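Form 7-S
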Amino acid sequence: MDTATPIGRSPARQAWENTGTSLIPGVPTPARFNALVTEAHGLLSQAAPHVHEHTTAHRDGSFASPGHCAFVPPGPALQTLATTARS
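Output:
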């Protein structure tokens, strides 16, 4: 039985076997993700509340509670992410 490591193993597979992690294409890098989180926390004070005070009845008899949310203007990190093809 040959137990040698197969030749031609992909770098992603090798990283998975060595560390249990692998980079997924299209997912923001940790640095970019942290920049987005930091930016969002800094913009929370600018959040504009948006409230639906009405209750909606659905055909199945259930009800939707009033909705409360807030919109935050996008910062430079989010705008860059939205306009770039790769993270």
